[in-house]
Amino acid sequence: MAPTTRRRALGTLAAALTAAIATPQLAQATGRRHRPRPLLRAHAHNDYAHPRPLFDALDHRFNSVEADIYLVDGDLLVAHDPVDLDPARTLDSLYLAPLAARVKAHHGAVYRGWHIPLQLLIDIKTEGAATYLEIDRQLRRYRGLFTTYAHGRVHDGPVTAVVSGDRAARAPMEAQRIRSAFYDGRPADLGTAAPASLIPLISDDWTLNFTWRGVGPFPAAERDRLRGIVAAAHARRQQVRFWATPDLAGPERDAVWAELLAADVDYLNTDDLAGLEAFLDAHAR
Questions:
Q1: 77 beta partners
Q2: How far apart (Å, rounded) are the C-alpha atoms in residues 246 and 265?
């Protein structure tokens, strides 16, 4: 073989080997870029009211979903009002079992390639203590799915269950040394002895704290109050969510959402999945 031909052949071989080594790395990086990026601040309020509970929120990349539950004849039924109760619509069938199947299919993650816990907010509508004990029993059936608290330490799982609603759930939760759920606190819990390992989330009704609904400038005193709540919570490694914020598409809602982002509020509450997805994508940082 002539020297020029030999050099060309060796060069071709080296290029092929380089490509063979680089291709898996490139494919891995490209695959990560094309996997849906979860919207960490997106909370699906009344998630069960959508045509496809849970799955509509996941399709819009929400990383927090909310289910109202009633304890009825020993099971946990999902509905907003008692008149809507249906024995076929259970917490297990709509949320627990589908999440377990998805996490298994995605090798330990709700969103493939993103090992960030999804928040499942369970809002108790019946007596809290008895309802929580049933929640606890059902969550424990899904070993490895839920973030757990055990003997003073928190162990992250693919899904973090946070119990809200009837406040009587708190006492049995506080008494447990091992549990698969956490408690949704209120601003009154800020500065108390309750740790983030019990209360990782502080939630409240926007209208009880602020008069502003997105029309005109945000009053300076109210902006300071909002940022003070967030700062106090974050100092204790707790997250913040407000419900009853304006949720009708338009400049008023966008103004409130923009202030929530600016204040570093952790979850924006909505029933409009596509609307919040578009807003967060437009304000990505």
A1: 70, 90
A2: 15
